[in-house]
Amino acid sequence: MQQYQAIRQAAYEANMQLPALELVKFTFGNVSAADRSAGVFAIKPSGVPYAELSPDNMVIVDFDGKVVDGQLRPSSDTLTHAVLYKHWEHISGIVHTHSTYATAWAQSQRDIPIYGTTHADHNTIDIPCAAPMADELIAGNYEYQTGFQIMKALEERNLSYEEIQMILVGNHAPFTWGATPAKAVYNSAVLEEIARMAYLTEVINADAPKLKDSLIKKHYERKHGPGSYYGQ
After folding, report:
1. Which of 81, 91, 139, 203 ranks highest by number of CB atoms within 10 Å?
2. Domain CATH for 35
C-alpha cells in the first residue's frame, strides 16, 4: 500500500547496505524500518537474495509481529524486531547480521573489550554479550524470546538501549539498533570493525590492557559530550 512506501523504501535501502558493507553473505541478515506513528515496520522478506530485493517486496508487520501488508513471508527474525520496537519506543531501525568478527565474539560468549579509541568513539564500555538462551526458551518461541534475551542483558547491566546501541547474542550473532535504519546499519558496521580490531589486538598481544579511563572519556565526549567538537 502507498501509505507504507516510505518505510518500504527505507528498509530496502538499508538492507542493500549490508552486502555493500560486507556485513552479510547470501541471505544472512536483515534490516527493519519502523513507522512508530502507525505502529508498524518494514522488514526484509525471508530467504530472498539481496539482488532480488525491491522496495515493493519489503513486508509490513505490526509491533506484535503480525503481517499487515505484503505478499512474502517476513524475515525469520521478525519477532525479535517486533519485541524490541514494542518495548523500546525511541528506535526506528534494527539490524541483525552474522558478520564474521562480531559473530565470532558472540560464539565465544565474550564481551568485546574496550581496547582502543575507535571503540571509545562509540561506547564507553565493553560491547556486551548476552548469555546463551535457556533450553526451555529455545524450545518455545525462539525468535520472540531473543528479543527479551537482548533486553534482559542490558537490564542486568543497568545499561540504556539509547546509549548502548549494539549487542552480541551468545552463541548467535550481533544485533544493532538506532533512531533510524541508516543509524542502525552504521552501528552494525562499527560493531564489526570494533570486533575485528579487538580480535587482532589479542592476536598481537594476548595481554593487551584495556583503554585507560582518561582516553575513554576524552574520545567519547569529543563526539557525544556537552562540549563535543567532532564534525561540522
Report:
1. 81
2. 3.40.225.10
Confidence of residue 1 (pLDDT cuts 50, 70, 90): low
Task: Give the mean pLDDT of the chain.
Answer: 97
Domain carrying residue 10? 2-224
d(CA 155, CA 177): 16
Query: Among 48, 198, 207, 45, which Cα is nearest to 115's?
Result: 198
Cell numbers 570486533 correspond to what residue? 195
Which parts of 123-212 fold into alpha helices (H)?
A: 135-138, 142-156, 181-204
State the average pLDDT over residues 102-112: 98
Catalytic residues, which ones? Answer: 121, 230
Mean pLDDT of 97-105: 98
Alpha-helical segments (H) within 25-141: 78-87, 100-107, 117-120, 135-138
C-alpha cell at 194: 570494533
